[in-house]
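Instructor's aside before we start: the two examples that follow are unrelated to each other. I chose them only because their records fit on one page, so don't look for a connection. First example below.
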Amino acid sequence: MSESARTAEPAGCAVAREGQKDVIVFLNVRRTPLEQRAAFFAAHRLGHEVVLIADKAPADLPERLVREVHQLDTFDAAALDATMADIAARNTVAGVVTWSDPGVEAVSRLAARHGLRAPSPAAATVARDKFRMRESLKDRPDLIPRYARVRTWDEAAKAAAEIGYPLILKPVTGNGSKGIYTVHGEDGLRPAFEELHRYVQPSVDRLFTGHDGEILVEEFLTGTEHSVEGWVQGGEVYFAGVTDKTTTPDFHLETGHVFPSALPAEALESVHALTRAVVAAFGIDDCAFHLECMVGPDGRARLVECAARGGGDFITSHLTGLATGVPFCENTLRVATGRAPLPAEGPARYAGLIRVMADRAGILEGIDGLGDALRVAGVEHIAVEREPGQKVAVPPADFVSSAVLAVIATGDSYDAVRASLAAAQQAITIRIGDER
């Protein structure tokens, strides 16, 4: 691929190779190169090249796998529709997928226009709106927390009084654990509300377009945190498995995962039953899904949210495939192109991830011990997400940059994976200096 394909291009500009057919369109890709490659290689294994539409094309794309790159504002519906029409006029398009929340509704619209497989626009709208998620299940209060959508301080104070403390404030639309506040009492409500209200604006993050100022106030759920990974095709739910999650107690940033879950059989059945009910209520079909839930002390699962796309944070790009032997991204593309997902014969191994986080704001001066961490038995990858010299910050100032790196490990048991991750984390030191 020419250098021009890797740099900024005007809307609709493409770099193409002639005489080739049958492509899969990706609407943006995941944030890290390690996750991106998993998606590109999945397309390759299925015999497809990729046409990438992206707000910003990543550097060093695999040129033998990526046929065209269209760099444009993907929030511009007219430009996006015109670009997709141009791609379809010159290629046989087998499917269209996105790998993160901002593209879910756009992919549904594009698929409907071009006769491709994806969730319906109505289902995609629900899966991008946490208030609508709960409204679609309001006849099943046993599956959801108590909740209210608010836009003003008076509405927030009224909702908090009705729901009770502790409670959660979060954006109505969002992703990546951005903007989640735990409020333990009345004195903490107003500061949290004002900080979050300033954050949920399109001028801060275009993810909030159409939902500016919208906040969800909801019941604080106790128990353990999990996600469910799988696909829906023709109304049938296919489970890849359940992931156990570790999060920070204050802002619920995800710091660790282990797949498959250690939940007992009864709790797993509750999680599966919740998933089937959510998929049916939302109308999700012909896509991957990533459902997050809490399992209470009584073993009952309740919904946190459900996305109509595969999970991020290396769960579906790496953990599920390392554990089961069946690449999740490949099955996602199989479903998007009308093929049944490949089954796994049950988990062959366990896989997990731990994040090394900055504990204060400043300048990342260095990362020590990476070589020692890579030599820990079971460690498969270390993905460095912040480079020395970059600024790091902690919530609520920033919800992303505190994640410095992630360690991925496998093992023959749940405990072996956790031990490998702990040993790798112990070997790594991150050095943060003051801003000058």
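Example two begins here.
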Amino acid sequence: MELVLVADPMCSWCYGLSQELGRLIQRHPHTSIQIVLGGLRGGATDILDDAGKQFRLQHWDRVEQASGAPFNRDGLLQRVGFVYDTEPVCRAVVAARILRPDADLFKVLRAYQHAFYVEAADTTDGMVLAEIGSRALSTDLDPVSIEEFWNTWKLKSTIDEAAADFALTREMGISGFPALFLRKDGRIHMVVNGYAPVDQIDKAIATIAGWH
């Protein structure tokens, strides 16, 4: 089963859906997930003020209630001068894809989500992203160094490839995240647009796939 997930690592509802997709993979272990990066707030320059923090915390409460995903609220509240720019972390997932095309990018996406929402890591900082990415991408037989990740993340070609993902998202007509598709017979079919629990996702896939 091939799924296509359009998401942004710093989108809280994408984080909630990732919990459900983790449950879906437990049911269907041979599922592969292609990641298209959405660029929710790519290139944002405004500093996140108290009102912006409270707005996000309201979303976090709803996501936690729906999905059970854990959140470190103090980590957000204590940030000073934080610019909520999602381009760097989207580009980090793209860098992982470039470095190891056959890697499980869903695992990398989840590592960045956990880093931001639970560990309160600064996922706008390139070196922090390189540390998380190298750890998520490395295997015992095929390690990826922080330096290798960092150098790939900085490349103009990587910046351009992330921008191409953002453009593809717009071409697909997606304005809200997350969006999940099933690839079938060379075409992609919308499974859910927005957050949905695993049973709803499973049922929608079964309908599209024609399972009985």
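DSSP finds nine helices and four strands in the chain.
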